[in-house]
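In the design runs reported in the main text, the only information available to the sequence generator was the tokenized backbone. The following block is the verbatim input for one such run; it is reproduced so that readers can re-run the procedure and compare outputs position by position.
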């Protein structure tokens, strides 16, 4: 990405800082709505512990999430800061106090109802959809309890981009795939700028697909660049993209090996 001029940087920064969710005033006092709209990924946590009852309530929100045919195709691998360090040899990313690794799980159900044909891509899609819904339920439940979070798929080798590493470290059987980690903690600062979100009329249309406008997409990407530079002044956006590029190649190979396992293997292993 080409360097940004100072006026563009400042213009973008103002847009980011002043952006707010668009809600009619008559609805904006709804507590749940405010929780959803004000949620932000938080990457700075205090030393305050998350009590067991709070943490188990967050997990309960994951347990009761909706899923295709109520198959509940997820598993949750949970950690305190101590158990994470014991297993991974480093602190939870961003010094979170608890972490949940969300696993798409098409292994467990096969123990009692192995009547669907083995169709890896369908099974994988279904499990990813459902596990992600459970993740979001937990994320919102955490917010409602004053606990903030960030979901991770790259930072700290914590998600699908490090699928093979997590498969080995967590001893995952065939049919169980790491998706992301939710890092949880109490926030250090109260300030929460909203990262640039695409306008509703670019992502939403009545019926048939509508292409987004190139100029608006460019403007959004330019704001993304500004947001990154504002948060990481000494880091390179391009280097970060390059890191993703290299990890994506490896993850594609690893996930192919995991998703397209041979028929019959999943119900006998693990
Ligand atoms: C599945 C998933 C994976 C993510 N992985 C990372 C990550 O590895 N590192 C990180 O700092 N943020 C990660 N994020 C957080 C996103 O960067 C963040 O959601 C996005 O910038 C929008 O910001 P917001 O959550 O405050 O709206 C991830 C988010 C999701 C949903």
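Verbatim output:
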């Amino acid at each position: 990405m080409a360097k940004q001029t100072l006026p563009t940087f400042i213009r973008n920064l103002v847009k980011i800082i002043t952006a707010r969710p668009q809600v009619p005033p008559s609805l904006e006092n709804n507590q749940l709505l405010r929780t959803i709209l004000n949620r932000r990924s938080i990457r700075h946590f205090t030393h305050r512990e998350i009590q067991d009852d709070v943490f188990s309530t967050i997990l309960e929100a994951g347990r009761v999430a909706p899923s295709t045919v109520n198959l509940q195709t997820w598993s949750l691998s949970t950690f305190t800061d101590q158990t994470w360090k014991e297993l991974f040899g480093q602190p939870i990313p961003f010094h979170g106090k608890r972490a949940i690794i969300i696993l798409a799980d098409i292994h467990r159900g096969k123990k009692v109802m192995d009547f669907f044909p083995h169709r890896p891509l369908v099974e994988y899609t279904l499990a990813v959809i459902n596990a992600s819904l459970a993740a979001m339920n937990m994320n919102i439940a955490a917010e409602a309890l004053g606990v903030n979070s960030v979901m991770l798929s790259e930072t700290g080798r914590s998600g699908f981009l490090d699928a093979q590493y997590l498969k080995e470290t967590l001893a995952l059987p065939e049919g169980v795939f790491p998706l992301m980690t939710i890092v949880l903690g109490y926030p250090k600062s109260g300030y929460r700028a909203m990262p640039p979100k695409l306008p509703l009329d670019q992502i939403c249309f009545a019926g048939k697909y509508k292409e987004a406008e190139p100029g608006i997409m460019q403007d959004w990407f330019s704001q993304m660049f500004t947001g990154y530079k504002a948060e990481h002044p000494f880091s390179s956006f391009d280097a970060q993209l390059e890191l993703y590029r290299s990890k994506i190649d490896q993850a594609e190979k690893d996930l192919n090996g995991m998703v397209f396992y041979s028929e019959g293997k999943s119900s006998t292993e693990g």
